[in-house]
């Protein structure tokens, strides 16, 4: 796969895909150009149709972590540790044609991500 961005989210607290997690993405300083829900495989498949939207620039991926865990019945404090997780990343000129895969591992108390798909 060339260009674009893909997202994969695993709920490591349960060892399963974060099915039902709400996500959105957009360029920094602009409204989100896509919103979606992570599927049963842990992916956001509709994002593939938007690969042409990802040129040189800085983007924010937003994951609704607290909402996801509350939907699962997890008791969280009124002010959760992770509420809306904002992950800001950049695509530079030299990488504009490369694919950016963002694999997230989440719990209500932590997150891990790196750039895959180089």
UniProtKB/TrEMBL annotation:
Superkingdom: Bacteria
Gene Ontology molecular function terms on file: hydrolase activity
Gene3D superfamilies attached to this UniProt entry: Transthyretin/hydroxyisourate hydrolase domain (2.60.40.180)
Residues annotated as domain Transthyretin/hydroxyisourate hydrolase: 5-116
Keywords annotated in UniProt: Hydrolase
Keyword Hydrolase: yes
Transmembrane segments: none
Protein name: Hydroxyisourate hydrolase
Organism annotation: Pseudomonas taiwanensis
């Amino acid at each position: 796969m060339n260009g674009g961005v893909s997202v994969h989210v695993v709920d490591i607290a349960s060892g399963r895909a974060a099915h039902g997690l709400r996500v959105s993405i957009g360029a920094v300083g602009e409204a989100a150009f896509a919103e979606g829900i992570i599927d049963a495989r842990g992916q956001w498949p509709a994002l593939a149709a938007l690969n042409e939207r990802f040129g040189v620039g800085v983007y924010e991926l937003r994951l609704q972590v607290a909402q996801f865990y509350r939907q699962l019945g997890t008791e969280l404090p009124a002010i959760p540790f992770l509420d809306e997780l904002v992950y800001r990343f950049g695509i530079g000129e030299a990488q504009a044609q490369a694919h950016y895969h963002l694999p997230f591992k989440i719990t209500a108390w932590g997150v891990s991500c790196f750039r895959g798909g180089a």
